[in-house]
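User: I'm new to structure prediction. If I give you an amino acid sequence, what do you actually give back? Let's try with this one:
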Amino acid sequence: MNNALFDFLADHDLDDLPDGAWQQMIEDAVEEWNRLFKTKYDPYDTWLAYIERKAELQNETAG
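Assistant: Good question. You get back a string of structure tokens that encode the predicted 3D arrangement of the chain. For your 63 residues, that looks like this:
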């Protein structure tokens, strides 16, 4: 996942939503990205990559 896509997804990241709704919000943002930029990222796989990268960044800033 590139930085631009990560930033785009972060703009759609509403942590206060219930987990299922939060996941769907990110997956919908991936589909929007695909439409805008004619890419074919899998929404679920990209969501997983997003949460892994988000956790890594949070660990870097915490430690």
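You can read the tokens as a compact description of the fold. Here is one thing that stands out. The CA atoms of residues 12 and 26 lie 6 Å apart.
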